[in-house]
Design brief:
The protein contains 7 helices and 10 strands. It is of the alpha/beta class. It has a domain of 110 residues: Rossmann fold, CATH 3.40.50.300. The protein is globular and about 45 Å long. About 3% of the residues have low confidence.
Length: 246
Amino acid sequence: MNNREPEKPPVIRLSDICFSYPGGPMVLDHLHLSVFPGERIGILAPNGSGKTTLFHIIMGLLFPQAGTIEIFGEPVRTEKDFRAVRKNIGLLFQDADDQLFSPTVLEDVAFGPLNMGKSKQEAFAISRQTLSFLGLSGFEDRITFKLSGGEKKLVSLATVLAMSPRVLLLDEPLTGLDQDTQRKLVSILSEIDLTYMVISHDIDFIEATAEKIYTMKDGKIMVDQGVYIHRHKHAHMLGNMPHQHE
């Protein structure tokens, strides 16, 4: 378990964030969020509630119409500001095909370190070490587009971890994973010493990987009350017939 010290400032602070897509309704409506060092946050919310939009705002892939963003204590407003942010916050996209573009696994994983100024030898060494940590030794020369869905997702995670981020944003990381790979991802997240936020519809995964669980409603993060996961067991006549609960 990670215990944050209350006096430490948040690594991410969003204040009064408002965002809507052109011609559409408000997706984020005066949203507030603070993420502190060491926190592991899960977000459970319906499709269309703004979860992915929130991550893209943090990364500077989208810009809000109103509100302020502070990352590691510094205000970020421009594309130039966000270039530094992307070196320290790693985003795992929901679709691995949006993240992988090099011919081989090793080239893909090494791309980030190379762009951070590492030599080719250093970048390849970091990449091999990262692949080994994820149980992907021997994947270096594999062709990325020929990988399975689960393999692509783990390689995508390797591309993020190879950049030594301070914070991880994981958008539906279970997409395309079989149960064995899902369990492997839970184990990986339990071993890394990073602040992270994870979006998922899988309650068991959120319970296993997050220490705080939030939801989103009306364009806002529901922080004060949090989310309390519980399950109902019940029995009634004709329970095997299709029916609805109000």
